[in-house]
Design a protein that fits this description.
The complex is a heterodimer. Chain A is mainly α. Chain A is built from 11 helices and 5 strands. Chain A has 2 domains: about 70 residues, Arc Repressor Mutant, subunit A; about 140 residues, Tetratricopeptide repeat domain (Serine Threonine Protein Phosphatase 5, Tetratricopeptide repeat). In chain A, the strands form 2 sheets. Chain A has a 3-stranded antiparallel beta sheet. A two-stranded antiparallel ribbon of chain A has the order 1-2. Chain B has one domain. Helix content of chain B is about 25%, strand content about 25%. Chain B contains 1 helix and 3 strands; from the N terminus they run βββα. In chain B, strands 1-2-3 form a 3-stranded antiparallel beta sheet, with helices on one face. The radius of gyration of chain B is 16 Å and the shape is elongated. The chains are: A mainly alpha, B alpha+beta. At the A-B interface, loops of A face β1 of B.
Chain lengths: ~230, ~70
């Protein structure tokens, strides 16, 4: 199940036909919670603006509309609903990668530093979903991935993989162009590679953007990264 | 006689706020809003003062009120 960059279901190498909006929400909610949930909790969370009876009816309807191959992904009991064992969710992998990158001294896996990790951390969770439960999850993920992308850029630079480090830092900048720490990371990566002109260019672009957007100058801390480079 | 169903809009306002230490104006507030979630969010509005954020919230509430069908 893909939740990053949009909802998507696949089986093996092939994409599955889209399921109804209500079924998508049910599947995504179960995937994000990662454990079986009571029917009442699921119904009241996914259909908060209706009566309990209607919410339960909507849940039954969403379950009934899940098409055959996808139905096996959901385990239902009298009181609970959850995802079946073996259902892989891209967000779970990305979140675990982000936590490892941010944990001091954590043992990183090779996949944590590959381009797929940069791509996963660059993707929004369920973009354009505005349900209450989804908005909170998407904002939490956004914060986590911003920090993780900066950490990933540092890990890659330390490993001497400067091209990928720049890609990770640029992804952090794109995700939040006003966040100074992302620009600082990009400048540091350029400096670590010995690319002073690129560092100055990155600084100049941020300075110009900050000035046009908010009428502000970068902090003295950011100036400090490039001060020596600008002296004749 | 049945009256035609009124479509009810749901507005949404997300404020992301953080502090840039040592900046002349440390507050960064990014507002993403809509008066109707079914039409998606407006482009983000970036602000640095509490007052401007308050004004933007009041302005959004007024727009939500104006966008609702009369009761």
């Amino acid at each position: 199940m893909g939740l990053l960059g949009g909802f998507q279901l696949s089986l093996g190498q092939g994409l599955l036909a889209p399921v109804s909006g209500a079924s998508q929400r049910l599947l995504a909610f179960l995937a994000l919670r990662q454990r079986p949930l009571s029917r009442t909790l699921v119904a009241e969370t996914l259909w908060p603006d209706t009566s309990d009876a209607r919410a339960h009816a909507s849940l039954r309807s969403a379950l009934a509309r899940v098409p055959e191959p996808v139905r096996h992904a959901i385990v239902t009991t009298f009181s609970g609903i959850g995802l079946a064992d073996g259902v892989e969710v891209d967000f779970e992998h990305a979140r675990a990668t982000a936590h490892r990158l941010l944990l001091q001294g954590a043992q990183l896996e090779p996949a944590d530093l590959d381009q797929a990790a940069i791509a996963s951390l660059s993707a929004d969770l369920l973009p354009d979903w505005y349900d209450d439960w989804a908005v909170i999850e998407t904002e939490e993920w956004r914060q986590l991935r911003l920090h993780a992308l900066e950490a990933l850029a540092v890990h890659l630079a330390v490993a001497g993989r400067f091209g990928d480090a720049v890609a990770a830092a640029v992804a952090a900048v794109r995700a939040e162009p006003l966040r100074e720490s992302a620009h600082a990371t990009l400048i540091r990566v350029h400096l670590a590679e010995g690319n002073q002109s690129e560092a100055l260019r990155a600084f100049a672009l941020y300075r110009e953007f900050l000035s046009s957007e908010l009428g502000l100058e970068p902090t003295p801390r950011l100036y400090g990264l490039v001060d020596d480079l600008q002296r004749p | 006689m049945l009256s035609p169903m009124r479509r009810q809009h749901t507005g949404l306002l997300i404020i992301r706020a953080w502090i840039e230490q040592d900046s002349a104006e440390p507050l960064r507030a990014q507002l993403r809003s809509t008066t109707d979630v079914s039409s998606g969010l407006e482009p983000p509005l970036n602000l640095t003062s509490d007052e401007r954020v308050g004004e933007a919230v009041r302005s959004w509430l007024a727009a939500v009120r104006a966008d609702q069908p009369a009761g």
